[in-house]
Amino acid sequence: MASKQFKQKKEDITMNKKILALFLALAVSASAFGQANISPAKAQTKKVILLGGVVHTGNGQVINNGYVVFEKGKITGVGDATTVRFATNDGEMINVNGKHVYPGFIAPVNTLGLVEYESIKATLDFQEIGNLNPHIRSLVAYNTDSKVPATLRSNGVLMAQIRPSGGAISGSSSIVQLDAWNWEDAAVKTDDGMHVNWPTTPRFRGFARPGFSAESMAERTQAAILELNSFFAEAKAYNEGAKPAETNTRMAAMAKLFKGEQKLYISANTQKDIVAAVNFAKKFNITPIIIGGSEAYLITDFLKQNNVPVIVNQPHSLPSSVDDDVNMPYKNTAILYNAGVTVAVSINDFWQQRNLPFMAGTVATWGLDKEKALQTITLNTAKILGIDKTTGSLEVGKDATLFISTGDALDMKTNKVEKAFIQGRDINLDNLHKQLDKKFSDKYTIK
User: Fold this and answer.
1) What confidence tens digit (pLDDT) does each residue in 379-398 have?
2) Residue 407 is part of a domain; what is its CATH number?
3) How many domains is the chain built from?
4) Is the residue at 19 inside a domain?
5) How far is CA 14 from CA 10, 18, 22, 121, in A?
6) Does 170 share its domain with 293?
């Protein structure tokens, strides 16, 4: 009997090894199937002049026949092309007549560069074990060799805020530009904010499973909120008191938040949860930023009075309540914007980030004009993230992070990015999807 069990165990180990080998082979083949990594562009060496075309400054202004000049990575001139003359030897002259110039789009709150293959655990680095992880830094896990960022650049998304997820306190996010050798080169703003997932009670429809009654789930939610309160109070006392002999890394990681050097991002959707989250933050003298906000349109006065920005998530989604207008996710952003709330637009996951411009395009058809919708992925996002002094719009003194499109960049039928610059560097717009398109177009072209 023992001999039979030993034989079976040996066969199981052999089978597990074969399965592991298969997964590793798939991972290697998937990597080999992707394009060779594209080297980041070199620093700008000569002045560039974009002349003619429609310049969308990102702050609401449109110059129908405009120019943009940048040198050493910074914008040195923006204006009406009919009022100036440039010498042909003044720099690299690029004719953009009939085209559109935009500030680079910014994708907030996502796991870009932290996930590569969702089916292969070794490539997932967006979540840590445990419930309270303020010491986790997403930036050090950011993979600049990922195949995904190049697909975003081709649609005008040139910057992103990468964040960890999971647990009540997920850790710190950082803002990166999408053309870099490593995470140190990529960093635009390091550890810009701490991310909290507000505990919420699921809405029950129909019959709940045994042990998961509305009452029991509400109790769990309340216990989770009390745990958050306790941790924040302890962390505040720890960082304001005398320096201890031994450092508590979790508590010490909260120091920047209490000093006002870091923002607090709270993921919450229902009206009740948003109010509770804001009041929670105010107890610690912090003004939070709400992520999600599917019912934020119901409390615009409250948000405005408390100066709380909102990053609306996934406009292309179903309403959060069965009583909501079916188009409410499309209209939410416009209602907040028109009420005076600072609002930006985001989208789920990492591959989906390339569709961010089209989320803003949807918003533009449900209550906002195109230039205001553009601000929800440019200047408004930069303001919320705290980087508006250097990016988010085409203004003198800001980084030359911008792109040229042959058509309206918020419309998927006309968004065609011809050229893009990050901090003045002329970046490569090739990507895996373009290579696959060419490969199979060549194969099936009728001769």
Assistant:
1) 999 999 999 999 999 999 99
2) 2.30.40.10
3) 2
4) no
5) 6, 6, 12, 21
6) yes
Residue range 31-37: average pLDDT?
Answer: 50
* Cβ partners under 8 Å of residue 302, min gap 6: 275, 278, 308
pLDDT digits over 392-415, tens only?
999 999 999 999 999 999 999 999
Beta bridge partners of 346: 313
Q: How many C-beta atoms lie closer than 10 Å to residue 260's C-beta?
A: 10
Residue 278's nearest CA partner among 286, 270, 218, 234 is 286
* pLDDT average, residue stretch 226-248: 92
Amino acid at 55: V
pLDDT above 70 (res 286): yes
pTM above 0.85, yes or no: yes
Q: Where are the alpha helices (DSSP H) in 213-297?
A: 214-240, 249-252, 255-259, 271-283
Q: Is the dihedral of CA 403, 407, 408, 412 positive or negative?
A: negative
Count of other CB atoms within 10 angstroms of residue 22: 10
CB neighbours (10 Å) of residue 324? Answer: 17
Is the same domain home to 141 and 226? yes
Q: How many helices (H) and strands (E) does the chain have?
A: 13, 18
